[in-house]
Amino acid sequence: MTKKSSTWFKIHQIYRALRCRVGTGEKTFFWLDSWATDRPLKEEFPLIFGLAKNKMNKVSHNYKKNQNGVFWDWQWCRLPNNDSEKNEWIALKDLLVNQPVGRNEDVWRWKENNVLGFSVKDVRKDLSGIIDVNMVPTDYEWSKIATSKVNLFVLRAVEERIPTMVSLRKRGVQLGSDLCKVCGIEPETADHIGIHCPAAKEVWLQIWLWIKIPLRDHREKITTRLSEKAEWPKKKMKIIYAIHLATVWQLWKNRNNKIYNNKFTDPFKIVEEIKEETYDWVRTRAKLSEITWSDWKNFIFME
Ligand SMILES: [Zn+2]
Question: What is the Å distance from ligand 1's center to 272 Cα?
């Protein structure tokens, strides 16, 4: 199976093929969904997206209504202060002025055009109903340390909206078996790949040892593991959270590597990849630019 024809690739295209007609804006992510144009605003205005404080805001969070009409506003990490940022900001304000918001429900629909060379009609035929496009998203804490790609992936995983064998079969996609391709023991769900699979358990044990937090129940769900932080050291909480996201992401990548390349990765190697990816994040996206690889491997640092 080539990358381009893989189901995973198609799912990506589905998200890109949806556009929201915003009513009140309560179901639509301001930055992450396509609504004002055919692309998400985070892609149209990447610099301004970088400056926005709450990247998971719904459209409804970002405007207020008064007798003069609609007034757009949100919290910033800092205001635009150079020419490129200011130009984006002006263009975004121009776009928003023309958005009729405030009445009716948000409605999702398919974009008319083909997306990256294959027709939306084909995708719909293959995967009709695979995602409930009008579903209200769960509460999910966006990590500023993790990349957007990883945040979005885990957000979908906690909602079981990633293309696992079980979710594909539920939606009528013909498959030989819905068992996990990594262990072959249990049906493949997002929680299985992220936590319950023997390979995942092994990885988590090593991660807990590394970041020095207590062991947890291997039967819990991803969403529980991400939200119960009482035993995490307060000062390292944000970094530990980002490491959790990276772990779920790397376990999914490992699963894909098994399915598409028939490669089995040793759990020690997966843990190494998690350490390397998060080392990049904390140096560039958290305030730990000085931390050495050896300190990171021992999880010794002060925030
Ligand atoms: Zn498994």
Answer: 20
What's the gap in Å between 248 CA and the centre of ligand 1? 13
Q: Are 253 and 277 in contact (CB under 8 A)?
A: no
Residues facing 52 on adjacent strands: 76
Alpha-carbon gap, residue 277 to 143, rounded angstroms: 14
Phi first, then psi, for residue 68 (nearest 5°) are -90, -5
Question: Could you tell me which residues come within 8 angstroms of residue 222 by beta carbon, excluding any fewer than 6 positions away?
Answer: 154, 157, 158, 190, 191, 194, 195, 248
Half-sphere exposure of 40 (CA within 13 A, CB side): 20
Residue 171 C-alpha to ligand 1 middle, in angstroms? 21
The pLDDT score that the predictor gives to residue 2 is 44
For tokens 């800092």, name the residue. Answer: 78
Name the token pair of 281.
């994040």
- Please tell me the distance from the alpha carbon of residue 48 to that of residue 88, in angstroms, as a whole number: 7
| pLDDT of res. 136 | 47
- The H or E element containing residue 47 is helix 46-51
Report yes or no: 120 and 114 within 8 Å, Cβ to Cβ: yes
Low-confidence ranges of the chain (pLDDT < 50): 1-5, 114-120, 126, 128-130, 133-134, 136
For residues 90 and 83, what is the distance between their CA atoms, to the nearest angstrom?
Answer: 10
Q: Is the entire prediction scored with pTM above 0.85?
A: no
The Å distance, Cα 197 to ligand 1 centre, comes to 4
What is the 46 CA–ligand 1 centroid distance (Å)?
37
Backbone angles phi, psi at 248, to 5 degrees: -60, -40
Tell me the domain boundaries of the chain. 7-124, 148-297
